[in-house]
Amino acid sequence: KEEQKYRLGEITSQTLRMLHSRLNANLGPYFGNMNLGQISSKDILGFIEHLDRQSIKPITIRQYLGLLKRILTLGVLEGWMDNLPVFPKVRGKSIPRASLSVDQYLLVLRTAKALSHLNLANNQVTHRNTANNVYVQNGPIPQEMIRLIRFMTNTFLRPVDIKLLQHKHIQIVEGKQCYLRINLPETKRHSGQVVSLRAAVRLYKTIRG
Prior knowledge:
This protein is mainly α. It contains 8 helices and 3 strands. It has a 3-stranded antiparallel beta sheet. Helix 6 packs antiparallel against helix 8 (199-208). The longest helix has 20 residues, at 58-77. The chain is elongated and about 65 Å long.
């Protein structure tokens, strides 16, 4: 079912890979030898304890339970089990990522700009000082990285969004209001439209060339 959603463009390849990863890492090994109709709330509690012993965070445990519930729901629809067991609630405080003050953000930009002017100690670029052919250890930060920092700040996008973003997802709106309308592909179950700050338009035009 999930692979069908991927083929239809309803979920991303990243979402599908995460599903396979969780099936192989914990769900399959723990429930693989059980008959669907025999899985009870007690078994699910045992699974939660199994994940907790691995120091898996509550938010990730809830995602595991969500996937398990989808699997068992399919079991009910296919007639392999009569009804769903009761799923216990996993309580856990979500810790938001820290944010930068305006002064800290400006310091990041100034530091990145200064690091972009570094001279390489060794001009020879090899596999020993690069990663994916784009990073040189002890070398200058690419100018594109500075633009990316500013672009992400003015569009409210996360690294996971940037990895999937393409020009076809971005529309420039210029009129009484000037902004970018960004239609994001699905990332971590989030999809939808983003309206940027005005400065993002000029940044995007520079990046696009």
